[in-house]
Give the backbone structure.
Amino acid sequence: MATIKKKFGVNLFQLRSKAGLTQATLAERTNLSIDSISRIERGERAPSLESIEKISNALKVSASELFNFDDAETAALSECSYESLELWNLLRKQTI
């Protein structure tokens, strides 16, 4: 079972990807380091409340949306490695 940090990270990855932002761009907009964004997305680190506010503002979503990870896709992706998540994102962008 995935931890809340992992679920949060996967959801952040999905929201960031949907917004068309790189980790570097999100880091710049939030004044967080790229390493911090990466570690949050991998579920290795939990963001502070201040970081959650900065991230939600940068992504133009509510803070509560960052915690909306009850859908089946996020649950399934939370069980995968970060490399699998990146592959899923690349495949998702491909057109058939």
